[in-house]
Amino acid sequence: MRKQICSGVFLLLLFLFLSVEAQTCSPSDGKWYTTYKSSPPVSSHAKATLTLNSFEPGGDSGAPSECDNQYHSDDEPVVTLSSGWFNHKKRCLKYINILGNGESVRAKVVDKCDSTMGCDSDYDYQPPCDNNIVDASKAVWKALGVAVSNWGGMDIYWSDNDDLFSLKLHC
Questions:
Q1: Backbone phi, psi, residue 91, to 5°
Q2: pTM, whole model, 2 decimals?
Q3: Rg of the Cα trace of the chain?
Q4: Which residue, 125, 114, 133, 166, is CA-closest to 52?
């Protein structure tokens, strides 16, 4: 009996934790997508998934960047961060350091990839971002020396400070 109660309490706590951290939404494609209230903590080097984005007019973003209400050239090293990492615009127009493919690059944060909302008309029925996304311009991918055929998704580390540059030197 005691084992059943402990198991029941554990399952209830697990359910409550998951329901607070992640919810779901379903755009017109009928699939269910997770929405997040936060991103993983940022340490001296946060692990993330680098994705490709065009910040130009008519590009993937569809609108000017949230930080400066401007479009940006694909030749400029700029990024979008997941909602939690974007931190209510606290990283707007600041630089982050990205380490991937054995190379590093500094990129300016210009937008938020919303991981808390999506699936409705305000978001053009697009699913939300995962909570660990650094969405980058072509310039970032080029600087990391990634072959164009491999652009799209890659594991990286990023940081607000220069620690990643010293990590690169010691790798």
A1: -100, 5
A2: 0.73
A3: 18
A4: 133
User: What's the pLDDT tens digit per position in 92-109?
Assistant: 999 999 999 999 999 999
Residue pLDDT, tens place only, 131-143: 888 999 999 999 9
Measured distance CA(167)–CA(128) in Å, rounded: 32
Q: Name the residue with tokens 């699913």.
A: 127
Report which DSSP code applies to 130: P
Residues near 43 by beta carbon (within 8 Å), at least 6 away in sequence? 159
- What kind and span of H or E run contains 13? helix 2-21
Please tell me whether residue 49 adopts helix, strand or coil conformation: strand
**E strands present in the chain:** 22-25, 33-36, 46-52, 78-82, 95-100, 103-113, 133-136, 153-159
